[in-house]
Each structure stands twice: as C-alpha cells, then as structure tokens.
Model the fold of this input.
Amino acid sequence: MLHDGRAIKVAIVGGSRIPFCRAHSAYRNFSNQDLMTAALSGLVNNCDLKGQTLGEVALGAVIKHSKDWNLARESVIDSGLSMRTPALDLQRACGTSIEATILIANKIALGQIEAGIAGGTDSISDAPIVYPDGYRRILLDVHSSHSLLGRISPWFRLRPQHFIPELPGVTEPRTGLSMGESTEITAKEWDVPREHQDQLALSSHIKAAAAYDADWYESLVVPFADVEEDNNIRRDTTFEKLSALKPVFDKTGDGTMTAGNSTPLTDGAAAVLLASDDWASRKNLPVMAYLTFAKAAAVDFIDKDGLLMAPAFAVSDMLKQTDMQLQDFDFYEIHEAFAAQTIATLKAWQSEEFCRKRLGRNKALGPIDLSRLNTKGGSIAIGHPFAATGARVIGTMAKLLQEKGSGRGLVSVCTAGGMGVCAIMEAA
Done:
C-alpha cells in the first residue's frame, strides 16, 4: 500500500472507543448510531476537532436497520465535526473498521485527502427484527394498490406464521453453520486442546483487567451511558472456573468451545484518526504510529479451509510482499473470535506442511513470542462488536508503539465469509 517510495506516509494520530458491553446489558436502549456517535465524539474532543472539516469518514456496521442506510453521515453530523465532512458506509463483516482504516489510509497516501476517520459499530441489543417475506409481500401489495378491493384482498393471504419474527444470526448461508460450529470443526482439524483454549481466555481477562487497573485505556476509552470499563472482563475468573463450563457448539461430548473461551455478543463502537505528517504537525497532534502495509485474503471455507482461517493466508501474503518474517514484530494484536481460532492460526503458521501446501512457502513461518500477543487483553475479555474490533486493535497497537518509541506491530482480524484482513504498523 505505502511501499513505493512516493506515497505519503499515513499516521495514526488518535484512537477512541466507548467501553464494549455485553449485548442486552448497559447499551440495550441505544442504537448503532448512538454508539458510533459517542465514539466519534470522543475522538473529536480528544483531538480538538470540534467544527473541523476532515477529508473523509468511513465506517460501518454488520447488523443494522434499514433506517441506518446513511449511518456514517448521520453519526458525523452529531459528532461535532463540521457538516462539510463527507462520510460513507462500508462493510466487510468483522473486518469492517480495519477495512475502513485501509480505505482512509489509501486516500491519504495518494494525496486525495489529508486526514480522515475510520471506525465501526455494532449493537446486538438493537438488532433489526423482520417478518417473513410473505408478510412483507402482503404489505407491499396493499401499499401499491390503487383500489379499495386491491387494498383489502391481500389481507386474505395472511397466515399465523407471518407473525413469527426472523431474527438476525451468524449462520453462514453456504454451510448452514454458525461461526462457533464452524470453528469447532477447525479446532478438531488442528487438534486444539480445550486446556489451551481456556488458558488463552484466562490470559485475555488477566491482561485486560491489568491494563484498566494501570489506567492504560484511559486515553483510548471514553465513558458512555455511565459505563467506564468493558463489562465482559471477568476479574474473578480462574482456569478452574473456565474448565468447568460446558461446550456450547458441539454437545456430543467431543466439543471444546465454551462461552468462556469464545467472544460474547457485544455492543460497542470504535474509531481512529489518520492523517499525513504535515496535517498532524499543523494541528499540533503527535503521531502515535504509522500504518505501512495492509492485506486482505479469502479462503474456500466450503470445501478446503476453516471459516476463520483466512488471516493465516493474509498475513503470509503480506509478509511475502514486504519481505518480512513473522517474528519481525514487537507486538501482535490478533482478534480472538474464539480461542480455538487464534490457536489454530498460530499452529498453521508453525506447520511445515500447511505452509508448503497451502501458503506456497518453502518452510514454516514459525512461532511468535506469546508474551507479545494481545498484551492489553483480547476480544475474549474485551468483547467483539463486529464492525468495531478492527478500529479497537489499531488504536491499541498505535498506543503500544507510541509508548515503546520503536518497533513494529502486526494486527489481524478474521471475518465471516471466510475472509481475513491484516496490517503492519510502525512506531513514529
């Protein structure tokens, strides 16, 4: 993306999110727009952007109402930015806000804009509930008719089943399997032990709690609705408590994935501010880090690969293009959709056979230093509002690199539909 020697360097100069909360809890009465506006407003206030015009704002949501067709623009209008700031919606499932970040970065790199915001939001609590298509068809026929008889006769087709709502879900239309069910298959294929999954989950909670105790998230998380901390963090959890939970996706006795080692359904929003060095200097905003490369990939999750294994391919392809090794990073922010998915990806990179046959390499990518992985907690503890996670991990990585003052970071997010998005960030 930015390695041709001519493109403008893209800086991360701010990150903001609201606390992530379990669905149907603290944010149960708030919409996607409410959450997104709060995250954007936090960024506007923190970076002194009130009334300022930016080149672009790109954000989205995975699950949203039809009334949210212009979610990005409506959120910008209420955020405190100038009304002259344009905005657009986009979506790549769980990779939405990291994809939004890439879009804004590319516009800056090409000189089309000087600064912009990328972000995402999701509210499971405010999920749209629709009715069967037969009922919709009746309503449309009534509405389109120009005669009294035409407006009455469609109602005779009404049946009791038309009143059974259809709830949104995370089932893949091509396989009929939920993400959890798909990942159970991956866990078995990669021989991911239950113990390893619970240990990763425990580590996620411990690291997230420690980060909050040290006020590390104070500059990144803005309170909203009387919430100041991600409410899924379990400070009192133990390995024994996690081990006692029953599998939820495979109940045959062979399942290993539980509510404890999987991400919960979550409400939340996050955003990051990107800019050129010149713009940041004029605004007197310190550069936190630079976004230097990004890559997306997709896999055949129907016949060949696991649904959430695309990051293994995306990272490999990105490292080939940048002539880097997997070990060339000081920090790794890898989205924990499920502990099993994260572990399977790490095992894939260490597999000589997988790297040769599936990634086209002559040897395994190798292991990473796990002490550098999700050092301030991961999605299992913090939560996963689908479209917000990418902006969360980018904001977190930017601060990690800013504090260290040197080095590189790798961020990676798996998504529905067998896709994955990753990026490289470097210290300023």
Q: What stands out?
A: Residues 194-213 form the longest helix (20 residues). The chain is about 35% helix and 15% strand. The beta strands are 10-17, 21-22, 56-60, 87-89, 115-122, 266-275, 289-298, 331-334, 408-415, 419-427.
